[in-house]
Amino acid sequence: MVAATARVAGDLDVAEECVQDAYLAALDAWARDGVPHKPGAWLTATAKRRALDVLRREKVFRSKMPLLVESAEEEVVEEPDEDAVPDDRLRLVFTCCHPALAREAQVALTLRLVCGVSTGDIARAFLVSEPTLAARVTRAKKKIAAARIPYRVPEASELPERLDAVLIVVHLLYTTGHTAPSGADLVRADLVDRALHLTRVLLALMPDEPEVRGLLALLLLTDARRATRTDAEGRLLVLAEQDRSVWDRAAIQEGKGLVVGAFRTGRVGRYALQAAIASLHAVASSYAATDWPQVVRLYDELLKRWPSPVVALNRAVAVSMAHGPEAALDDVEALARDDRLAGYHYVPAIRADLLRRLGRQREAADAYRAALDLVDNDAERELLTARLAEVALG
């Protein structure tokens, strides 16, 4: 709705205000006249009309939002180049990933305004505090104002320079939905499905980009396990516990084909490498039978292209499976001292698992308690609580 309204308003903040006004109008109109047959279309049409009203009141508009619009009258009649990006939401993602903004500001602003991810969940994805993330979004808006960056859909020739930021946005959108950082449910299907849709549109738009293929492969291969990630009672099942016979074979086949296509280009990046790791999990007959040495080698390559502490932590898990928990413990202990991961509950959770496998139950219990202090998702909390009970009994 914000995306459709922004096309009329030419301004993201104005679009957000108009959408909020539409919801308020709905409270009165729907109570009086009943809920319309298509409530979503009603809200969008109302928000667009509000945007047109704002644009007509040029003086009011310019006093409130002098930052993004170049000519109100022109914006009313001009339509963006829909041929460049044939999807409302993806068009807005490309627009918000403006190269004048720093990469983190591009991604945070887009996830917040376009994708509807909460500030708290974005902050967890960036491993920063919520106030820090909120300040970054505010600074990005102020920079847009100061630089008078116009809201304008980029031309086709401008898309490649924005692609990396767009891929980060879509990947973070997916990961936020795959394991919700907070709340009662493990998965937010709306975010997962939106990320898959955006990636498919992106691949149709830029079919020769190997990283787009890699990202779609990664999402498909990961999402193929969705139905098996919780049991009938909604309890989280880790990868080793999932029923592989129920995994979505069509998604796995499509994902494997995309991985092969991405590697054949000779321009392999972080998403294709992650997809290759996901592919090894997908084809293994069991968790223990996974080709862990090959997974470790792929993580080594991934770290060269993307030296992230989160990647290093995932590599440590693979090392523990390939060479035993003792071989990975030093790496995890070192990552536990990395300030960037201070609030990341997976560090103490993985450390606890290694200690449990080594029979160091008391230390494992302390680590599980540390993880429980940081986790905000109820399904993950329940799993960690159960593991703590196991080691406490042991």
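(the above was protein one; protein two follows)
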Amino acid sequence: MSVEAKKDLVRRFFKTIEEENYDALKDFCHPDFVFYPQLDTPYPGVEGLIESEKKNFDAFPDFKMPIKAMVAEDDLVAAYFIFEGTHTGIPFVGVPATGNKARFSLMILLRVSEGKIIEQRSHVDVHDILRQLNT
């Protein structure tokens, strides 16, 4: 699989997340998929990723996640996002809906194997989000 094909796979993967098409999301993930929302907290299987993404969209129903930059090398693809949303849904990290808008950056490193995404590592500053929610 070429580097460009891997970048295209990742673009389609995140478009599917943004569309909240969780059934289709499973088609992008390798059977050994692991999601690391934090450094040493692995969630094996795509179910952990889906649960995490549902929480984000339930907390920020107008959540947008455009990719601003993408770099790929060997089996790795890095994507940089600017997320935007209004906190009008469920509590976020225990904080009840504030009605505040939040805009934050996110770096995600993905590893591709056999034409599927086998690993996703997300790095976000949760304190920056909480600051914008006035907590």
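Reviewer note on protein two: The mean pLDDT is 94.
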